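[job 0412] stage=fold_complex status=start
inputs:
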Amino acid sequence: MSALVDVATARRGMAALVDEGLGDEEIQRAYAHAVWSTLVEPGDGVAGALIEALGVVRALELALSQTSERAATSEIGLDDRELRAGYARWQPRRGDAVSAFDAARRAGARLLTPDDAAWPVAVRDLGVHAPLCLWVRGDTGILRTPAAVALVGARAATAYGTHVASQIAAECAADGILVVSGAAYGIDGAAHRGALHAAGPTIAVLAGGVDRPYPAGHGDLISQIARSGTVIAEVPCGSAPTKWRFLARNRVIAALSGATVVVEAAQRSGALNTAYHAASLGRPLGAVPGPVTSAASAGCHRLMREADAVCVTGSADVRELLGYGPESDPIPGAEDAARTDGTTRIMDALSARTPRTTDEVARRSGFSPADAGGVLGLLELDGRVERAPTGWTRRSTASPPRLW
Amino acid sequence: MSALVDVATARRGMAALVDEGLGDEEIQRAYAHAVWSTLVEPGDGVAGALIEALGVVRALELALSQTSERAATSEIGLDDRELRAGYARWQPRRGDAVSAFDAARRAGARLLTPDDAAWPVAVRDLGVHAPLCLWVRGDTGILRTPAAVALVGARAATAYGTHVASQIAAECAADGILVVSGAAYGIDGAAHRGALHAAGPTIAVLAGGVDRPYPAGHGDLISQIARSGTVIAEVPCGSAPTKWRFLARNRVIAALSGATVVVEAAQRSGALNTAYHAASLGRPLGAVPGPVTSAASAGCHRLMREADAVCVTGSADVRELLGYGPESDPIPGAEDAARTDGTTRIMDALSARTPRTTDEVARRSGFSPADAGGVLGLLELDGRVERAPTGWTRRSTASPPRLW
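[job 0412] stage=fold_complex status=done
writing structure:
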């Protein structure tokens, strides 16, 4: 038991932020996650590696301890220079936690950690750069919606772009697909509005604290998302949105989503950064085309040409990007997913176009790679899937679509 | 020497349609090609196979002969039933040649056959379905321009589509790239106009005779193309453009061009038929994106999604599609091509993105497959090209383009 992270401190700190019924160890872990989020900038890989190596509580104790107590850190197997630089970054923020937790309580925010059932497991793909916790305003259950798409794009969107973003978002959300975006002006806002209009699920991932709606002009929209959907941030309440936090926020949008679609983006738009994260994570990438005469679509066309982004013209294309079949196939909801038999889950995890490795299929279907491999082998014998050097694809039983 | 295709008849028939200086055998062959074009519908594979098997003169004699003289046709190795059906198709058109040749003379058209130096060798890829000859108004030299792009699309084009078609055509033509299209209303006309405006090379491939400009409203445009570029048709003068001839004409547009780009096309536009031919011939396919809300762009988006068409936003993308580098690389002209050393020609024939087989590289560079293979092997050792199971690609020496 630690002196720095004692149960009483943890319970006091976490009051109204987590479930009252948590046990001592759980509350200590939740508290440690929360404190960590006040010490680091998003995506701090040294913090992530330290927590992975030692556990969140022990890692925090080390981070908060005096230099003299850290003699044993070389055992951890982390680069000593990096670790020392980490301590140097984290120490100045000691003590920021109390005001951050108070701000969260005032905003009605809750804490979500990797220990929670509602934790979105997809962010694990970020490895040591994954968020250490999430601060949430709204319904945490939405975070585990099986199908999620990031609809992102330029703030300086055109009427065409906002129209298409809101249309695709509304259709996806009506279909039960979670619409993830960043609450910015332009495409992001249009995507959230489309989803809200269809009374479907949507998540806004903020770069600053969830108590500091940004941009200010979207205060009402963000409140509405908090009521009907979810507003999340990995930075604690009170944090200002900085340039770095915007870039880091984009990786969370990409990681939360099964696919990322850029609706409008200029040649050097920040939305391309989200696309980059999606591609790095191996998530399918889509782009909505527009007039070649429109600078607001140039980034989308570039993604199609240079990053193999799929041309997305409507929600049916988004479904396909997420690995679901034509409109008649239902998107498995949280409840459906549990009932669906293994074969269907594997088939749902495959695309007819994009080959996926066994590991990727396993991740998408929620099987172990060994189990997924077994089912895939049977489906191959059955002629329902095809194996190529680059992975597995679904064979369509209907004749292929003809263009002519 | 044949009774049906005697030299005197051939010389009389070909007067003013071919070079006066042709020898007896050449004039007989030219005449036979010309007569064949009056007997068949475009793409008649039985005629093509018969000509390939027997030579154009002997094949014609057989086609024009009486049934009793055809006893020996089983030796040819063609399906007897197909051949009989061919004779039955061709016989009724005996005698159409005289008026067709007269019409050609009145129109100032010339005959081009596979024997001519100006014959566009690229159409050989159509095999037995290649045009038997071409009727030409204008400069035949243009037909051997090394770089050619088909710019095609809907007749019911939007202002956006015609603007983009004419812009891309002008830039390509100014660059020395031959703009091939079908002289139809909408995209085709805009492409020709763009090329003419840039004083660059353009070819109109007509579905009917070159003496019957179609559509009538493009009579002036087609005359202008005949003056500054070339108007061609495989059907003889006097032929009406029929539905079949439009579809068959599209295969010639695709075959003449190193790449086909669809600028605007509705879901079921005829322009997709040209795209289909290009894809069948292994020619790269491009499509210009447009608003997803525009029905006139739906076919283009479909080509990107379902036929792996490359997203084309300007003439630089067309250059890349044709296998040429960024704007600083010159497109080799007819003269340049002779001066360029072998390595450069092979490098020019490669794409950084699309793998090409040795045969394809040979065809594009004008080497034999064996010679192309040798140069490719050396370039591989040099690290300038990359070999994959699907073919060769050019390695870019500069760092790859970054999106973020």
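[job 0412] summary: Chain B has three domains: 7-98, 133-321, 340-394.
[job 0412] exit 0
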